[in-house]
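With this grant's support, the team has encoded backbone shapes as discrete tokens. A representative record is reproduced below.
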Amino acid sequence: MSVSPKILLVKLSSLGDVLHNLPIVWDLRSRLPDAQIDWVVEEGYVHLLTPLLSRDGFRGVDRVIPFGLRRWKKNLFSLATWKEFFSFRKTLQSTTYDILIETQGLLKSAIVCSLAKKRSGAVVAGLANATEFSGYESLARSFYNQSVQVPAQCHAVDRSRWVMCSSLDWSLIERGDAPQFYPSQFISSIPKSTVDGLIAPYVLCFHSTAREAKRWPNSHWIEFGNALSALGYQVVFPWGSAAEKTISQLLAAKIANAFVPPAFSIGDAFSVISGAALTVGVDTGLTHLAAVLNKPTVEIYCDSPRWKTEGYWSERIANVGDIQDPPSVQEVLDVSLKLLK
């Protein structure tokens, strides 16, 4: 294999899945410093990858290729949609790839691999099987020439590493090799948040998630929030939809000096999380963003398995609860106070 292969990563969504795929960029870069590494991602998550773009002698991802499928599906019969799709395909095919690593296991991701331009004999690696509690479409295997069997219970970071290592015929990277997510110089240079109303020290509480069963009860958030408020912390309840905003307002109304911020983007989230004394949240993307930034974080698991996405790489991350075993208020409060010391 060339010392400077052209590699395409395909991980389209969602927020947490993209974050947990980041370490393979640095795994690749550490052994193949001269490789070209490109990544196809849903356009809504491009902000997660821009800190990795190569610049000023720093080498991370060479090219981020936005994919607008979520938006395109809403306007399939629009001429503009098809013009954008063909423009995407032209951009994707401007490079001939040696290795394609598809870690999502979905048909849409596999089709992206099929659209890419490949050299003769290129490796197209993807998942051979589902992991528990993750989406998987077996038809995707027909688009790979290397299907990688992974354990049924496999952390999201480890799963990506299995596929990557197999594609390059490398020994499996063990969990003891702590994953890197973002460059340290990026984390240290995150600017102060410009979101109005945040008063330090504040604690972010990400109460919302796509599936209702994964939420921690409102009564728990209120009891927990009042305990932190009494210690002088501003308790902050972000939101991402009208329904989530209503719940945030309900919670904040029952906690002294609690705050519901205006809506903020994924790009703004870096600054908001970076400035927090602590982030506490259910199993959702923005909670995982705090964990991969190595900020003090409590991850609450209520109806999803902890082994799948827990932040295992830092003592600044506490993981509590498990599938069908949500933690008590006291348990979350105890680990929170420990991290706040």
Summary: The longest helix spans residues 79-92. The chain has a mean pLDDT of 96. The chain has 14 helices and eleven strands. The first strand starts at residue 6 and ends at 10.
